[in-house]
Automatic annotation (TrEMBL):
Sequence ranges assigned to domain Polymerase/histidinol phosphatase N-terminal in this UniProt record: 4-69
SMART domains per the UniProt record, alphabetical: POLIIIAc
Xref: CDD domains: PHP_HisPPase_AMP (cd07438)
Annotated source species: Schwartzia succinivorans DSM 10502
Protein name per its UniProtKB record: Polymerase/histidinol phosphatase N-terminal domain-containing protein
One Pfam family cited in the UniProt record for this chain: PHP
Cited Gene3D superfamilies: 1.10.150.650, Metal-dependent hydrolases
Length: 289
């Protein structure tokens, strides 16, 4: 069976493979198509597209967009959009300003927590843009925590909040613009903290219904850490609301050990190419070009 992976990360955000390296890995793993969905960043797409074309892999332009929704953060995967669309570029500029401004102040705040980090150290981890993920990559290299999440919880997120750097776009603002650019927008890993974790099932269902009303096209039906109950719940929401099914491994390379591109954890994911065909049919029916 030909497989796909619609949720991957590169060194542009918080992965350990370069965009070109992801293409090489996809080729080795016989993945027919994949989406590069770096966090709030599309700067790796051009490199990935050139490499993918050379080896005959279908690359879907993507981005994992951080949004504010009723006092919590959610991640939304945007797939298959025109990066050069004026509508998308206007939204993207706003997103990047939020991610890139006050980085020097963020570093100073982390220094006050006793971490010997400097602007010069962070610059060595830049892929051309200095943002919160660049700071995260530097902190990872310093090996002050065994896992990545504490770096966000202890340092980056609280200091960024104090600096007013945690203002993200909203679904009401972003969904119409992403649709104009041709994107399908899908709720990522609903069961996580950046998602709908800690809500009751009924509250999660109501949240997804509201997001659907605002323009959400789909949910990640496949994800490595879903329980059986999670998958049953999501399928019920997909059926109820007429949404499309997306999904992927959320591959981060060495930054998320045990999760393999295309197959997840111990082979627990296998998304058929027909799922991408169904998404493209949904786009056609919805007039998303």
């Amino acid at each position: 069976m030909e497989i796909i992976d619609l949720h991957t990360h590169s060194t542009v955000s918080d992965g350990t493979y370069t965009p070109c390296g992801l293409v090489e890995l996809a080729s080795k793993r016989n993945i027919r198509a994949f989406a590069l969905t770096d966090h709030d960043n599309v700067s790796g797409l051009e490199e990935a597209k050139k490499a993918a074309d050379k080896v005959g892999i279908e690359l879907i332009p993507g981005m994992e967009v951080t949004m504010n929704f009723h006092g919590r953060k959610i991640h939304v995967i945007a797939l298959g959009f025109a990066v050069d669309s004026p509508d998308f570029q206007e939204l993207y500029r706003k997103i990047r300003i939020n991610k890139e401004e006050k980085i020097d102040k963020l570093i100073e705040g982390i220094q006050r927590c006793g971490v010997p980090i400097t602007l010069e150290m962070v610059q060595k981890h830049s892929s051309g843009q200095m943002d919160q993920y660049t700071v995260m990559r530097c902190l990872v290299s310093m090996k002050i925590e065994k896992k990545i999440q504490p770096l966000w919880d202890k340092y980056i997120d609280p200091i960024a909040a104090d600096l007013g750097m945690n203002e993200n776009v909203t679904p009401e603002e972003a969904f119409p613009i992403l649709h104009k650019a041709g994107a399908v927008v899908s709720l990522a890993h609903f069961h996580k903290k950046i998602g709908l974790k800690d809500l009751s099932r009924e509250a999660q269902a109501d949240a997804i219904r509201e997001l659907r009303h605002l323009g959400l096209d789909g949910v990640e039906r496949w994800y490595p850490s879903y329980s059986e109950d999670d998958m049953v719940f999501l399928q019920s929401m997909i059926d109820e609301l007429g949404m499309c099914s997306t999904g992927g491994t959320d591959f981060h390379g060495l930054n998320r050990s045990g999760v393999e591109m295309g197959t997840g954890i111990n082979g627990n994911i296998s998304i058929p190419y027909s799922a991408l065909e169904a998404i493209n049919e949904y786009k056609r029916m919805e007039g998303l070009k």
